[in-house]
Amino acid sequence: MANDKRGNKKSIGWFCSYVPEEMIIAAGFEPVRLKGEMEKVKAADSYLFSNICPYVKNILESGLSNKFGNVEGIIFSNSCDGMRRLYDLWTQYVQTPFTYMLEIPKNRDEHGIKYLAAQFFDLKTRLEEAFDIEISNDHLSKAISFMNDRRTMVMDLFESQKEIPSRHQGSELLALCMEEATCPKEETTERIKNISGQSSASKHSQQKLPRIAVMGNLVDNPILFSMVESAGASVVFFDTCNGLIHYTNPVENGSDPIESLARRYLLKPPCVRMPGFGKRIERLEQLIEDYSIEGIIYNNLKFCDYSLFEAPQVEGFLRKSSFPFLVLENDYLWGDVERIRTRVEAFLEVVKDEFE
Amino acid sequence: MMRSHYQKAAAFMEQKLEQRPRGFDLFLKELFAMNVRAFQEDVKTVYVSGYAFPVELLRAFDVVLFDFEIACNNLPAATSGNGSSIMVTSENQGYSRDICSFHRLAIGCQLQGMLPKGDLYITSSYYCNGKAKTNEILANSERKESVLFDVPNEISDSSVQYVASQLKEIASRLETITGKKLDMDRLREAMQLSNKARSSLKDMHELMKTRPCPWDGATACLLELGGAMFWGTPVREEINQLLIREMKDRIKSGKLFPENHRVLWFPWVPVQTTNTFKILKENRVNIVMSEVARVWWSELDENRPFEALALKALQNLHVGAAEERVRSLMALTEEYNVDGAIHFSTPACYHETASFRLISDTLKGKGLSVLDLDGDMTDERNYSPERTLTKLMPFLDILASRDVGDNG
């Protein structure tokens, strides 16, 4: 039933890495990660104050401009203050046939897992009611296996980045991750397989370049990566909610698929919304070692409270070992790209000095 | 510095109360005295906010409560319009000015060594992203554990159980910290006291419906933010009863502020001195109620204490969809018969300001004048008296023109 008139699979949109794509697949829909589609934000400015997250604002503008008219539904999540209010505005001023607000607990313990499982069960029920379908455990188990395979393929790519020189350009990996999340799954499987099957380093990566990691919040625009690469360094990985964090840890397919999903999603490496600066810094420390990283760029969307509080903690930690660290802020559209380029190039000069 | 300030302030209020017992003064004295006690080495101090956590649970233990937002923002620097002199300490450590001024100020106080040492740091997930992170930073600075009281945005059996389970864990932590088991009778007693004060608060609010209004809605907001720390104690009822008596006396004697117009205020009140309230008074505009002051929770069921306290958290006015907030604001405008509403927006309060359009559209749809008054709760660099005046005057003109329309 979830096909359009041309026989293409209908899709359901999502924003946050904690939304279980498996549930959408099990419901017979194509999960599509939605991103801001506007080059300018105008109408949304009259709905949201100027200092609200530019990503949230761009999404709202995209909705008001009917850029997401092709999705049957959207699953929002209580990722942050901005996103929960986006849902309020969406249901009032945009409207989509099916919308759902998924609560994501912040406590990564058994109580949190139990509550998230209840939320996933509620989502399943709501999808069944809205689209007159049944989502069986068998559907869910198959979707879990399918997504686990994809995660493994993408994680293999990230794993290969530990090689020196790393096998792929960061911009290439970012493009692939974006494609994986935003395009029909079947269409992208072959491409992921082809890239992960490459047995040797690509031509570009033959030379040893300073190894940079990008962290922070969402980065769905390749501009920063291209900037780093054209300045003679390499983005080895990006530990963001659309990068390494999103693909780490498969779902353990247990007797209760919903509980298995909840366990995986809540216990995957925490994103910046979760409490525990210490845990994220411990992870960063390990990643720096595993991937032989020589500099960190902390990329922050403007007005993101989570990152604004986290960046000084990370900086404080890295400062102890004089590890090169750069905090950047962007307005999602990267309007001040030349100013950012100057800072990135200056930072990379410092990294290169230590590299040589 | 913080300790000595609150010692002096508590002593001053004590003296004032001896001369004339008044409800708001009693609240201030108790708050200041509690802030002083938080520094004592022989007590167990719990960082928490009364408006964001069901403190009745904590009242069942021998602990002193400390709200870092309220304590830091009532320091002389912050209230007199020099809060930035402390904030720069945190800004120099990399905390952006896009972060809420309340939190930059609190981190600044911590960096300057002004805060008491906490034994447990609790905050809730809904007030707000920034507060949760600040709480963690303050706890880390003392190498103590921070607890995020995670309250979902929906009320269901599973969310009540999820929140109740966290309360039980917090109780267990407190047992370890205090070395005493939770006394369920004491918890029930705290809940009874809370219910009693909730009832008298509703009586206070009934009196505020009188025309002219016998009290000030902005002060009522401040009482609810700080006074929420006293839910579950006899002093909260004492404060309420004094205020009820004062209001009744004012109504009886006719000694009330002249009132040409009635407005609703939402959500927060600036801590720093501003010209806003003076201008409103000069124009005979009374703030008759504020959103935060309203009673938004049900009576606590003492027979199911953890579930009842969980429900109180889930019913908080800033939990859940904005639609619910819109509904309750609409109800307030009708109950208090207001002519308009003033929204005071402080820059980084994202969860709140992002609801403004929805609220404003609904209130305007009912024919009410709505003003968005931008400023800052405590960072004087974001406040301008001239801008406030420029924004207030057209609003006051609109209120005045309603008279002409009504009479004509």
Task: Give a brief rundown of this model.
The complex is a heterodimer of chains A (356) and B (408). Chain A is of the alpha/beta class and 356 residues long.
Key phrases:
heterodimer, A: 356 residues, alpha/beta, Rossmann fold, 2 domains, 4-stranded parallel β-sheet, globular, B: alpha/beta, 17 helices, 8 strands
The CATH topology of the largest domain in chain A comes to Rossmann fold
How helix-rich are the residues of chain A, as a percent range? 40-55%
Count helical runs of chain B: 17
State the low-pLDDT regions of chain A, or none. Answer: none
Indicate the proportion of strand residues of chain B.
5-15%
Profile the largest sheet of chain B. 4 strands, parallel
Strand order of the largest sheet of chain A: 2-1-3-4
Distance between the termini of chain B: 59 Å
Helices and strands of chain A, in N-to-C order?
EHEHEHEHHHHEHEHHHEHEH
Tell me, rounded to a whole number, the average pLDDT of chain B. 96
Number of helical segments with 4 or more residues of chain A: 13
Name the beta content range of chain A. 5-15%
Mean residue pLDDT of chain A: 93
Which chains have the largest interface? A-B, 50 and 45 residues
**Uncertain stretches of chain B:** none
Helical fraction of chain B equals 40-55%
The radius of gyration of chain A is 20 Å
Q: Give the biggest beta sheet of chain A.
A: 4 strands, parallel
Instruction: Quickly give the structural class of chain B.
Output: alpha/beta
Describe this structure in words.
The complex is a heterodimer of chains A (356) and B (408). With 356 residues, chain A is an alpha/beta fold. Chain A folds into two domains: 126 residues, Rossmann fold, CATH 3.40.50.11890; 217 residues, Rossmann fold (3-Layer(aba) Sandwich), CATH 3.40.50. Chain A has a four-stranded parallel β-sheet with strand order 2-1-3-4, sandwiched between helices. Chain A has a four-stranded parallel β-sheet with strand order 6-5-7-8, sandwiched between helices. The relative contact order of chain A is 0.13. The mean pLDDT of chain A is 93. With 408 residues, chain B is of the alpha/beta class. Chain B has a domain of 181 residues. In chain B, 54% of the residues lie in helices and 10% in strands. Chain B is globular and about 65 Å long.
